[in-house]
Amino acid sequence: GAVVSQHPSWVICKSGTSVKIECRSLDFQATTMFWYRQFPKQSLMLMATSNEGSKATYEQGVEKDKFLINHASLTLSTLTVTSAHPEDSSFYICSAVYPAGVETQYFGPGTRLLVL
Amino acid sequence: GQQLNQSPQSMFIQEGEDVSMNCTSSSIFNTWLWYKQDPGEGPVLLIALYKAGELTSNGRLTAQFGITRKDSFLNISASIPSDVGIYFCAGQLRGGNQFYFGTGTSLTVIP
């Protein structure tokens, strides 16, 4: 099946630092990837749509200068949380759209970010 | 954005019982997906539905794409302890590329 990886799976950082999270589609090419944020016991909240070769589309209320997204290749999208603060602590999950006629979305294992 | 209402919010059942959950929307969707998420992990795709009325099975799981295109159902037969987790539905609008998620159903199976 389609496999999506995320790195790192855990990150702890000091307030004010930047953190980069990678999302890779391992066995397929994905022109579209999504970045979600999930708080404990809540559903997934879409942050942005990442399209290969173009600028990301951010959902309302998500700061594009805070959450930088780069989709430089058909198998890699990165999310950089700039100047992270404790309120940015969350579970970040990416997904990649598998383009097999009809679209299906596969998720990475998630990255847990803790900002101290 | 679109809101998908999922019910029930949580379920506590005995091992061996069947489970039913559903997802409803005020909008018409072209695609319905069902996922299971274990704590600390990303959601895993269970079943994908692409046509109104479609009924698809994956082992003990069966999902249906509602005729109105505004709802979907997931059934789990003969539940086992490893079915524990949170189940999410996700829908995609016609012409859209993003998926909207339901509020989730937390399933607990008592051995």
What does this structure look like?
The complex is a heterodimer of chains A (116) and B (111). In chain A, 0% of the residues lie in helices and 58% in strands. Chain A has strands at 4-7, 10-13, 19-25, 32-38, 44-51, 57-58, 67-73, 76-81, 90-100, 102-107, 111-115. In chain A, strands 2, 4, 5, 6, 9, 10 and 11 form a 7-stranded mixed sheet that branches. In chain A, strands 1-3-8-7 form a 4-stranded antiparallel sheet, with no helix packed on it. In chain A, a hairpin with a 1-residue loop joins β9 and β10 (102-107). The radius of gyration of chain A is 13 Å and the shape is globular. By secondary structure, chain B is an all-beta fold. Helix content of chain B is 0%, strand content 58%. Chain B has no helices and 11 strands. Chain B has strands spanning 4-7, 10-14, 19-25, 29-37, 44-49, 55-58, 61-65, 71-76, 85-93, 99-101, 105-110. In chain B, strands 2, 4, 5, 9, 10 and 11 form a 6-stranded mixed sheet that branches. In chain B, strands 1-3-8-7-6 form a 5-stranded antiparallel sheet, with no helix packed on it.
Q: Could you give a quick summary of the protein structure above?
A:
The complex is a heterodimer of chains A (116) and B (111). Chain A is mostly beta strands and 116 residues long.
Features:
heterodimer; A: 116 residues; mainly beta; seven-stranded mixed sheet; four-stranded antiparallel sheet; B: 111 residues; six-stranded mixed sheet; five-stranded antiparallel sheet; 11 strands; globular
Q: Secondary-structure map with pairings?
A:
The complex is a heterodimer of chains A (116) and B (111).
Chain A: E1 4-7, E2 10-13, E3 19-25, E4 32-38, E5 44-51, E6 57-58, E7 67-73, E8 76-81, E9 90-100, E10 102-107, E11 111-115
Parallel strand pairs in A: 2-11
Antiparallel strand pairs in A: 1-3, 3-8, 4-5, 4-9, 5-6, 7-8, 9-10, 9-11
Chain B: E1 4-7, E2 10-14, E3 19-25, E4 29-37, E5 44-49, E6 55-58, E7 61-65, E8 71-76, E9 85-93, E10 99-101, E11 105-110
Parallel strand pairs in B: 2-11
Antiparallel strand pairs in B: 1-3, 3-8, 4-5, 4-9, 6-7, 7-8, 9-10, 9-11
